[in-house]
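Researcher: Going back to the complex we discussed earlier. I've cleaned up the inputs and rechecked each line, so this should be the final set. Can you rerun the prediction on the complete assembly and write out the structure?
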Amino acid sequence: MSDEEKVSKIMFVNRRAPHGSIYAYEGLEVKLIMGAFDQDLSAIFMDDAVLALKKGQDTSELGVKEFSATFRVLEDYGIEKIYVVEESLKERGLSVDELVIQPEVIPISKVAELMEQQDVLLSF
Amino acid sequence: MSDEEKVSKIMFVNRRAPHGSIYAYEGLEVKLIMGAFDQDLSAIFMDDAVLALKKGQDTSELGVKEFSATFRVLEDYGIEKIYVVEESLKERGLSVDELVIQPEVIPISKVAELMEQQDVLLSF
Amino acid sequence: MLHTVNKSPFIFRNFESCARVAKAEDPIMLYEDGVYAAMKGTSVEGLMKEMIAKHPVFAIRADVKARGIEEKILEGVKLCDYDCFVDLVTQHKIFAWL
Amino acid sequence: MLHTVNKSPFIFRNFESCARVAKAEDPIMLYEDGVYAAMKGTSVEGLMKEMIAKHPVFAIRADVKARGIEEKILEGVKLCDYDCFVDLVTQHKIFAWL
Amino acid sequence: MKFSILILEGPYHHEAGDSAYRFVEAALRKGHEIRGIFFYHDGVYNVTKLMEPPSDDRNIAKRWSEIGAKGIDIVVCIAAAKRRGITPEIIVPNTRISGLGQLLEMAVDSDRLVTFGD
Amino acid sequence: MKFSILILEGPYHHEAGDSAYRFVEAALRKGHEIRGIFFYHDGVYNVTKLMEPPSDDRNIAKRWSEIGAKGIDIVVCIAAAKRRGITPEIIVPNTRISGLGQLLEMAVDSDRLVTFGD
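Model: Rerun complete. Updated structure for the full complex:
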């Protein structure tokens, strides 16, 4: 890997619930755009962001876009490593099979280590 | 009191800290404007809003307006009943003599009753 | 007094503040991210159950469906639409725990 | 890893999330409403003291003074300016607990 | 019954404006009167005609303008608007910029003031 | 060292933009390079030239424009700006509207990306 083609390790640290605010949605826009570039991308869903992955979201009555299905294509966009924090799921009464994707479940004690391996942390 | 000159009971329910967001400051603007009208005004400071009343605020290094002194003139603006919630003070390690004004200290259990006596509740 | 809560109970403490102030029998309206408080099996389930025992608790169905949690709503929470929200406001004074 | 917290610990749970993730010795920077976490005698004093025992904890002096709490800052919290903030960012990777 | 509505947060970013809109729709449908709608804090951003959301998304400013076209008074706080760059030139039709006294009038003149925000 | 700055919240409403400004000032004072400043979410509101704060208050947009005049690249996300009504006609000089790719370039091209928001 030459200096000219430096690949950065970029992690999206997601902490927000969907729909009540735009963070989760605009954060997804960033992931899709950045996926087009050749970087080493990963994502972690913790705190309220695990709610963004809940299966069965139906926003038709709200009149806003339903974007949870889009999380399924993150891998195709080059975000291959996706993690979800065990404690965040548990506090919200969720299990990983209730999510639209099946990320690697990690304990919160592993989050700091993953963060430290990155060059860039983006949080939405 | 005739119907044409109906006086409304309006209470400002303050719950936000100063400086980190504009709620406390713009909320104060509302109080000063409304004070010019002839209504029955009161204010309650609970949750983080008790921090807005802390003595000794000095925003010169932040380069924003220091407005805590303005709370002292609320009475002149017709807001004669001012309450502060005991539990909110205690959770923040504050006593009422550390505040720029000396409101009536009430227990949180009295808040609902005060709210119910109002025609209008404004929360900033 | 109708109390409305629109914040996630896992990140914000608004739901707790509301719980401490609301008088028994006061109706509670959960909407926007506030509906997450009505989910089964969460870390706030205990507090929510106390609320249900003391208050009529409503949650806006459109918000519940948008978040995919309709089948996880605690027993005793009434799902309702904005017509019902408007009716409640005609029957009670209102305070929003923003 | 430098962790920054800018929210009131009484209303938001960001400070708690940070506390659960930050590794021992990781510096913590409190700024904006986050500086309230460094006050003596509050309901989060216990957690803050644990943080101070495990981490270098900083608070932006301009934010502390703006809030009138300079004389109430817990022992062990270092007051600093933006020059010091910048220095810390040069020495550590950074994550903002927004 | 006579309602007034107070909206404290900006469009798209928070759900507040959407919830307020649905509340207003339901109130009108049920035959209630909306005395007025007041925008404060970041709420003032709701009425900029310069917003151009993706074609498959709602246009929040246009929606408020349509509510205004029904004769409902829609007022944007002048102090909040000025510091945020919302000027008379860029607000949608059927809305107006005025002072906080208008909020007081709406509140006093209504049976209920309903607040939506963050 | 080379920094980039990401700002996620609007002016006046949250302290984020003020904190970011003070960070940038300090970094420049200490001889560091600011590779770029990117505005996203409600952050896009920071650069409207239509803002007119009270005369005794800071003008946040003007401040960013002055930073831009030093040759620092200030970019406003086009998608976030469009839905919020921030158009090329109303942004202050020395700032520009562009895509999220610019944020990636700033991040990859800097030693640190520092985020300010709510």
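Model: Worth noting: Chain E touches chain F through 23 residues (CB under 8 Å).
Researcher: Good, that matches what I expected from the previous run.
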